[in-house]
Amino acid sequence: METKGSKKRKPAVKAAIFGALSLALYLLLFVYEDTINNNFARGGLFAFLPIAAAFLFSFVHGSFTGSFWSVLGVEASKKGGTH
Q1: Please, which pLDDT band fits residue 58 given cuts at 50, 70 and 90?
Q2: Domain boundaries, the chain
Q3: pLDDT for residue 50
Q4: Cα–Cα distances in angstroms (integers) from residue 42 to residues 21, 38, 39, 47, 49, in the given order
């Protein structure tokens, strides 16, 4: 049987993990800015690196944000369509 506290614990742990990952990604981005810019500008197959990085940042930050709002109790509406 799950209690209300245990339901909030899982999103809190997930939020902490993805928050730390998000922070680490941004830190790496700033620390290695020159290297990243040089590789992203090389062309050829390297042109996919900015796209891959955008997907990675989007996934990690989005997972953090979703879990963060769940911890605060903000959930999407479960109503049916408006047709």
Answers
A1: very high
A2: 45-72
A3: 95
A4: 27, 7, 5, 7, 10
